[in-house]
Structure formats: C-alpha cells, structure tokens
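pasting for the record
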Amino acid sequence: MTAVPLPERPPAAKIHQRRFYILCLLLAAALGLSGCVAVKPYQREYLADRIMDFSADQSEDGIERHWVETREGSSGGLGGSGGGCACN
C-alpha cells in the first residue's frame, strides 16, 4: 500500500486574503441591496423638494445664458434676441 500525500494547505496570507475578498463582496452586496426601498406616499414630499431637482437653478441658468449671449453677440437658438450691447 502506498501513502497518498495530503493536499497542501494554503499559507495563512492567502486565507486572510480570501476572507478579505469575501467580506468585501458581502459588504458590496449589503450596500447594493439597501438602495432598494419602497417610499410611502407621505414621504414623497421630501423627494419632490426643490433641492432634489438637478435643474433647480433655472433662474441662474437663464442669467448665465443671457450673459453668454451678450458676450458673444449671438443667441444660441433659444429664441433670444439682441446684440452685443446687452440691450434687448
């Protein structure tokens, strides 16, 4: 009868590395699944708040667009008129 060699055990560093990868994977899964949430109707008013809107600064955008059109002496196809003197 011949002796069957036992498989080599991985070094401790590889075991710790595997545990680290598993922990990172579990953490990523937990963070990913926590983003799925049902919003109750009475909570939707906070989501509809002006600060949650990406284009909430429309008045500032209009002022900046007017300034750019004035500086360039043109209008960007937005229906504006006027010349380089900033008078409409």
